[in-house]
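**User:** Here is a favour to ask of a fellow structure person. Please take any protein you like and set down a full record of it. No explanation is needed for now; the record alone will do.

**Assistant:**
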Amino acid sequence: MTGVSTHKGTQIGFKLLYQDAKEVMQIKTRMASHRIKYTDLSYRELEKVRQFRRDLIKTIPVAIIAIPPFANYLVFVLMYLFPRQLLIPHFWTPKRQVEYRQVYHSFRARHHWPLLKGLQQVSSQVKDSQLRSHLNHLCSKVQTGANPNASEILAVRGLFSGPPLGINRLSGDQMRQISSFLFLTPRLPGFLIKRRLLGHASELTLLDRALIRLGPHQLSDSEMRQACYVRGLNSDCVSTEKCREWLYQWLEISSSLKESEVSLLLHCLAFLSANYPNNGSHS
């Protein structure tokens, strides 16, 4: 099977999945017995629960297909033909994991430039000339292949709390572009897309706060790369030191934002990752 090279690989995948399910159950049990709030979980606990929930959601279509009698044969055929779409990372070889992350990031990168062009169009609605200038400078800098720093991004934060770029003021097209960064389906009504974006923004903020409490220096190399990938960076093409540098800049911005400015955090998926260090290209 593509992505699951041997029967042994399948066994390892199920073992890893069982271990994750057991760990998540232990976390949930401890939360209930000690009355621990979700917001008080450690970074690794939050990341474990988040990733397990995403993996579980991905398995739902396969489980539905497998319900009819003798459908298991069809499921195995489909998993063989579409391993990236139907299998979760537990069943991918390390080589496949890197390969599939590259594929997924290429999907994400397609939306960098349309989003930036959309922001420049919106800038014409900004009455404050200084903020308008800062936004145009930021978009132009990214579009020309440069990497903005935290101060340049935070200089436009005022535009992302209310009109025209606050989370409650984004157009349908803008929300759909951002949804693609988060691998959320854009084919939903606007109010549902906004609700999902708010949920993911809150989740990112919660993860960031927990990571700051832990200290990014405590992460292993693989954890560092995963943290950067979740936040928009093509981390498999960046050195560990560059990943660490990038993550500190992300956290600097994230820790500075108010709850009402979460729209800017979502846009940072493009601002910070489009060119870092040479990710993405103009389309």
Summary: The longest helix spans residues 7-34.
